[in-house]
Amino acid sequence: MTRTPPRPVDARHARLMTGVAMLAAIGTLLIWLTDRQEGLLTPWDQWTIPALSALYFGVGVLHMVQPRCMSLAAPPTLIATSVYLLVALHLGVDGQSLPQLYAVTSLVQLIPVFYVIAFVAWQRGGVWISGLTYAGVLAQYLFSLQTPAPAGGWTDAHLLTQKTLLASVLIHPACILALSFIVHLRVQLGTSQQEAFKGKERFLAMLSHEIRTPLQAMLGSIDLLALKLRGSAETRALDRLRNSATQLDTHLRDVTEFTRLEDPALRIQADTFDLPQLLNELRDDWIGQAQAKGLSLRIELAPGDQAALQAVKSDATRVRQIVCNLISNALKYTLVGGVTVHASPSRPHGARGMTIVVEDSGIGIAPQHLQTIFQPYVRLEDARALRVDGTGLGLAVVQRLVGRLGGRLHVDSHPDRGSRFTVELPMADNG
Ligand code: ADP
Predict the structure, then answer these.
(1) What pLDDT shows up at residue 431?
(2) For ligand 1, atom 11, which residue shows the shortest CA distance?
(3) Percent of the chain scored above 70 by pLDDT?
(4) What is the per-residue pLDDT across 40-74, written as a single tens digit (0 to 9) for each?
C-alpha cells in the first residue's frame, strides 16, 4: 500500500538548525569557562550551563543524523533554556553585588537572542515560548519593585540591575512583535506562493488539455491518412507531420511536468519497490528505439547484492521518470555504441540508498557546459546540430526530482567519448 510521507524536511533549514545548535553548545560552554575563571558563576550556573551545552550539542547531532526529529527536539530544548534563563535572572535580580548585576545584564541581552532562535526553531510555538519567557521577566521586575529597601538604601549595583530590567521589560515586546510579524509575513508569502503555483498549474493543465485533445485527434487522422497514401513524397510529408505533432505533445507534457515540480507542496510517495524490475521495464520501453539506431541498451546490476536492490524504498514513479529522462537523452545523443544503466546499493550521506548510473558512448558534453545543461530550456549547439528534438527541460526535471528525493546528481562527460550521469538516492524515510 502506498503511504503519503510527511512533508519532506527542508534541507537548508535543517542545516541552519544544526549550525545554530552547535554554535549555542560552543557559546554556552565558552561563557561558562570564562565566567568560571572570573568567579562569576552562581551555584545554579555551575551545573545548568554545562547541561544546556550538552543538550544543544545532542540536538545538533540529532539534526545531522535524523533531521525529521527537529520538530520534536525544539520544544523541550527551548523550554529548558527558558527555565534556565528565568531562574538565573531570578537569582540575580535581588542582588546588591556586581557579579549579580553582571548576571542580570548579560541575561537580559541573551533573552532576545533566545526569542529569535525560538521563532526560527519552533515556528508555531515560538510566539508562546517567547511570550511566556517575557511574562517571567516582567513578573521578576514587578516582584523586585516590591522588595523593601535595606537600611543603608539600595546600592548602585541594585539600581543599575533595576534599570537594566526595566529597559528589557520595555524593549522585549517590540522584539517579540517584530518576530511575530516576520513569521506572519513568511506564512502569508508561502500561502500566496502556493496559490500562484496552483493558478499556474490550473492554467497549464487547461491549456495542455485544450491543445492535447485536438492533437490526439490529429495524430489519429494522420495514421488513417497514412493507410490511404501511396506516393513516397506524400508519405514523407505525413511522417514529418506526425513527428511534429508528437514533438508538440512531448513538449506540452514536459512543460506541465516541470511546472508541477516547482510546486513546493508536491508530495513524494515513498514505497518499497523492485529496482531491477523497474529498470528492465524501462529497457523494454526503449529497446525498440535503441535498435532502430543500431545501439545497444543494457542493464547491469551490482553483483552479489540483488536482494537489497529488489526492496529499495523511494518514490518509484519519480525514480522511473529520472531514469527514463536519462536513457532518453543517452539514446538521443549517441550515434554509435550504446547505453548502459548500472544499479547498485550505496550509502549516500551515511544512509542506506541506491546508485543508478546511465552511461553512453555518445557525443559527450564540453566541460564548460556541464553546469548549464541542468538549467531549464537550455539546449546545447551540438544537440541542435544533431537535429534531435527536445525542450531543454529533461535534465532540469531530473535535477529537481533528485533534489525532491533528497539525492545527488553528478555528471562526467568528455566530448566524443560519452557521458555518465550518476544518481545517488537515499532510502526514503516515512517516519
Ligand atoms: P533536451 O534533451 O530536451 O535538449 P535536456 O535538458 O534533457 O534537454 O538536456 C539539455 C542539453 O544537455 C541537451 O540539449 C544536450 O545538449 C545535453 N545533453 C543531455 N544529455 C546528454 C547526453 N547524454 N549526451 C550528450 N549531451 C547531452
Answers:
(1) 40
(2) 379
(3) 93
(4) 888 888 899 999 999 999 988 887 777 667 778 88
CA of 332 to the centre of ligand 1 (A): 8
C-alpha cell at 406: 533528497
Q: Whose CA is nearest to atom 3 of ligand 1?
A: 390
CA distances 324 to 62, 141, 304, 394, Å, are 36, 66, 25, 10
Phi, psi at residue 174, to the nearest 5°?
A: -65, -40
- The pLDDT value recorded for residue 8 is 47
Q: SS3 of 262, please?
A: coil
* Ligand 1: lining residues by beta carbon, under 6 Å: 329-330, 333, 360, 362-365, 373, 378-380, 382-383, 390-396, 419
* Ligand 1 atom at minimal distance to the Cα of residue 381: 16
pLDDT at 37 over 80: yes
3-state SS, residue 404: helix
| Ligand 1 geometric centre to CA of 209 (Å) | 27
Looking at ligand 1, which atom is closest to the CA of residue 394? 7
Query: Ligand 1: distance of its center to the CA of 388 in Å?
Result: 10
Please report the DSSP string for 72-90 in residue order: HHHHHHHHHHHHHHHHHHH
Q: What is the DSSP string of 160-227?
A: HHHHHHHHHHHHHHHHHHHHHHHHHHHHHHHHHHHHHHHHHHHHHHHHHHHHHHHHHHHHHHHHHHHH
Take atom 2 of ligand 1 and give the residue whose Cα is closest.
390
What percentage of the chain has pLDDT greater than the value 90? 40
Question: Please, what is the average pLDDT of the chain?
Answer: 85
Alpha carbon distance 392, 379 (integer Å): 5
- Per residue in 260-279, pLDDT (tens digit) is 787 767 777 888 999 999 99
Q: What share of the chain is helix, strand, coil (3-state, %, to 5)?
A: 70, 10, 20
Pocket test for ligand 1, best of 258, 365, 377, 410 (most atoms within 8 A of CB): 365
Give nearest CA residue, ligand 1 atom 23.
Answer: 330
Q: 358 C-alpha vs ligand 1 centroid, how far in Å?
A: 13
CA distance 192 to 3: 28
242 CB neighbour count, 10 Å cutoff: 16
pLDDT digits (tens, 9 = 90+) for 375-398: 888 888 766 666 777 778 899 999
Which atom of ligand 1 is least distant from the CA of 334? 24
Q: Which residues contact 176 (CB under 8 A, 6 or more apart)?
A: 115, 127, 130, 131, 134
Can you tell me the distance from the alpha carbon of 120 to that of 113, in angstroms, rounded to the nearest whole number? 11
